[in-house]
DNA sequence: CAAACATATGAGCATCTGTTCATATGTTTA
DNA sequence: TAAACATATGAACAGATGCTCATATGTTTG
């Protein structure tokens, strides 16, 4: 680690054009953060199960809890995260709150993930 | 919370068909886990930045560290995670190890994420 | 309006995750 | 082969995350 000064390659000039190009084309910090936050929401098997459930039907929190064998509280906490990411929406029907997928993005993203997993 | 016995809706029968259908169509635990693990890899802005860097060029660890302003160690740890998820691959060129995107899945998945973010 | 029902939420706790630091492994060069 | 270079990795620590428990909020019904 000498060319790599301070463990950060500060002295290197070898591929400076590459480094510059990468820096130039890097999206804004905001977009990177938002993207990571979005995928983070998909990165939990409980939330994944909730999303698969919503593929089948619009459903209230209580049914969802029963279908997944989880407490109402745990499901509700996860639904809040999904709602904040605008992946699911809700409507009130009497005492119940019915959750549903906001749009087809969820299905598309998960399908792409499946394609990656299922190959090889 | 009475119909919802033990905080789990055990007594409810109201939407039992829905619950059954959801349970029936739920993917295997393995697939849910693998999917969540895959998206978890996308769910960190450092790894997101690494992936965007690799959109531009195949690159060695040292250049990557410089481009991102991170230590070589931190980058290397993240590259291991990306490699284990088969999102990136590597080849050795002399002293250096060059990293590159395994295939187009990464780009597709990130593009779908961007579509979701950029709407509304 | 009170009681029952359905959902949401804050606090606390155990676990997971990303970074740093030190060092090991692997490759080239003098 | 010794020294320099490039990358990988284990341990440790701080911050994030998901669940539980208790309780608050919101809706309907008697």
TrEMBL record, chains A, B:
**SMART domains from the xrefs?**
HTH_ARSR
Q: What protein is this chain from?
A: Winged helix-turn-helix transcriptional regulator
Q: Name one GO molecular function term.
A: DNA-binding transcription factor activity
Which InterPro entries does this UniProt record tie to the protein? ArsR-like_HTH, ArsR_HTH, HTH_ArsR_DNA-bd_dom, Metal_resp_trans_reg, WH-like_DNA-bd_sf, WH_DNA-bd_sf
Task: Give the matching CDD domains.
Answer: HTH_ARSR
Q: Keyword Metal-binding, does the record have it?
A: no
So which residues are the signal peptide here? none
Query: Per UniProt, which keywords does this protein have?
Result: Cadmium resistance, DNA-binding, Transcription, Transcription regulation
Entry annotated with the keyword Transcription: yes
Q: Do you know which Pfam families this protein is assigned to? A: HTH_5 (PF01022)
Could you tell me the superkingdom of the organism this chain comes from? Bacteria
Q: Which Gene3D superfamilies match?
A: Winged helix-like DNA-binding domain superfamily/Winged helix DNA-binding domain
The processes (GO biological process) annotated in the record are: response to cadmium ion
Q: Where is the HTH arsR-type domain?
A: 27-120
Q: Which source organism does the UniProt entry give?
A: Porcincola intestinalis
């Amino acid at each position: 680690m000498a060319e790599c000064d301070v463990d950060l390659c500060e002295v290197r000039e070898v591929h400076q054009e590459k480094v510059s190009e990468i820096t130039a084309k890097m999206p804004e910090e905001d977009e990177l953060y938002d993207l990571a936050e979005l995928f983070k929401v998909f990165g939990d098997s409980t939330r994944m199960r909730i999303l698969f459930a919503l593929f089948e039907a619009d459903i209230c929190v209580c049914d969802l809890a029963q279908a997944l064998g989880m407490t109402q509280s745990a499901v509700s906490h996860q639904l809040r995260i999904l709602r904040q990411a605008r992946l699911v929406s809700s409507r009130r029907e009497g005492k119940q709150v019915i959750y549903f997928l906001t749009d087809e993005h969820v299905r598309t993203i998960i399908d792409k993930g499946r394609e990656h997993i299922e190959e090889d």
